[in-house]
């Protein structure tokens, strides 16, 4: 069974659909991930839908991690500049 093309994590998803997930803020991705988790935990989905939700959740988790990693790098950079008054 094929997944709908509107699912940005579907195997045949377009670059635009995948890019849409990449454009989410951390808060948006986290909220969507929480919705996916609630849907999976409810147990009311069939196998195909559960797999699609799982794939979307994995991608959303990657987006969240990327945002956190970026924030961590910015904080570290700011700390290093603060520790070295000659750094620009």
What can you see in these coordinates?
Keywords: Cytoplasm, Exonuclease, Hydrolase, Nuclease. The protein is an all-alpha fold. The chain has a domain at 25-83: Orthogonal Bundle (Helix Hairpins), CATH 1.10.287. The protein has three helices and no strands.
Helix/strand layout:
Blueprint: H1 15-22, H2 26-42, H3 47-83
Low-confidence stretches: 1-5
The name of the CATH architecture of the domain at 25-83 is Orthogonal Bundle
- Report the mean per-residue pLDDT as an integer: 84
Specify the helix fraction band. over 70%
Per CATH, what is the topology of the domain at 25-83?
Helix Hairpins
| Helix/sheet category | mainly alpha
Main location: cytoplasm
GO molecular function: exodeoxyribonuclease VII activity
Function: Bidirectionally degrades single-stranded DNA into large acid-insoluble oligonucleotides, which are then degraded further into small acid-soluble oligonucleotides.
EC number: 3.1.11.6
Keywords for this entry:
single chain; 88 residues; mainly alpha; Helix Hairpins; 70% helix; 0% strand; elongated; disordered N terminus; cytoplasm; hydrolase; Exodeoxyribonuclease 7 small subunit
In short:
Heterooligomer composed of large and small subunits. By secondary structure, the protein is mainly α.
